[in-house]
Amino acid sequence: MSRITSVFDTLRGAGRKALIPYVTAGFPRREDTLPVLRAMVAAGADVIELGVPFSDPMADGPVIQRAGDRALAQGVGLGDVLAFVADYRREDATTPIVLMGYANPIERMGLETFIVRAKDAGVDGVLVVDYPPEESSSYARQLRAAGLDPIFLLAPTSGPERIAQVGALASGYVYYVSLKGVTGAGHLDVSEAVARVADIKTTVPIPVGVGFGIRDGRTATAIAASADAVVIGTRLIEVLEAGDPADAAARAGRFVAEIRQALDAPPGG
After folding, report:
1. Of the listed 32, 46, 60, 149, which one is catalytic?
2. 238 is catalytic
3. Domain boundaries, the chain
4. Which of 87, 155, 244, 266 has its CA 20 to 30 A from that of 131?
């Protein structure tokens, strides 16, 4: 059983929902990466999505693009991200870490080399935005053979065939993008997202997390009515960039703690 599956099983048994914060590796500064991870886990994060900086992030809005640009300006690449994970694993052997990014850095490293290095570093799952499920059966098999969970996206425009394909290929969890467009765009229609997730779960046999547009405890709690996890990225990046980088970890920890408290509050509390 993977670390991701174990975490979701434990949370399900306790009647709780997973909190999955997203941060860009190397942001605000290279040296902030590990302190930010530590602070978020201490504050109640269940899984970490660690973004791999890339120069052409087609699915990311301006906030996460800025974070990636700052990380790239410091020379942070895929190899550095794997080193961050390996360093973090020396102190935390239980919190799952998912790498989220694009195909180009992986292809440049070589898929087989990447899988070996990711496994050795202690990565638990991989979400590649531009690996479509229709063309990813071999990729998914290779990841699972190494004990890594292939995680795929679903969107409001995903039809029954795409949902079935993702349900057959993915493990760990599925990431439902609740908005059309890039990260941080538009207004989240909570009722529509809740209904859509409930529909997806009739086909997809693994946990479903929801991201894009969740910015506070109120929306996180509302989404958690049907989702197994909430993913928060853009708002967290805004928190990290708003102030002295030396205090970034503390700000991240406070923000994650607020969301955790909201998710764990009793109904009507």
Report:
1. 60
2. no
3. 3-264
4. 87
